[in-house]
Write a structure and sequence with these properties.
2 domains, 111 residues, 5 helices, mainly alpha, 48% helix
Length: 111
């Protein structure tokens, strides 16, 4: 019986044995959100979570982030995203290199 490439890779895979390796494996398997969750957990909690996940998911393909926007299921068009913050809708500034940064910071100081 022929094995798939994934099965062969899993059989050759060394089980992670320390926190760094476990977090790296969890991140590869479940995505960057899992790494953020692990950052808040103790070593013991990460090991416990890893042991459960290793048993259940070692044969499952790694996480792949979908690219592109998901279309609306009603009209089929890609949505246009906006952000809201304390400044208002679509007024967030994320970098001092933003061309509007100096103007906006001056306006705030003059209020």
């Amino acid at each position: 019986m022929a094995q798939t490439a994934l099965q062969e890779r899993v059989e050759r895979m060394k089980k992670p044995s320390n926190r760094k390796e476990r977090v790296r494996w969890l991140g590869k398997k479940f995505g960057p959100e899992m790494v953020a969750v692990c950052a808040e957990n103790t070593d013991r909690e990460v090991k416990k979570e890893f042991e459960v996940m290793w048993t259940l998911y070692k044969h499952v393909p790694d996480y792949v982030r979908e690219r592109g926007n998901v279309p609306c299921i009603i009209c089929g068009e890609e949505p246009e995203w906006h952000c809201n913050c304390g400044c208002g809708e679509d007024l967030a500034i994320f970098s001092e290199d933003d061309p509007d940064y100096k103007e906006r910071i001056t306006e705030i100081r003059n209020e």
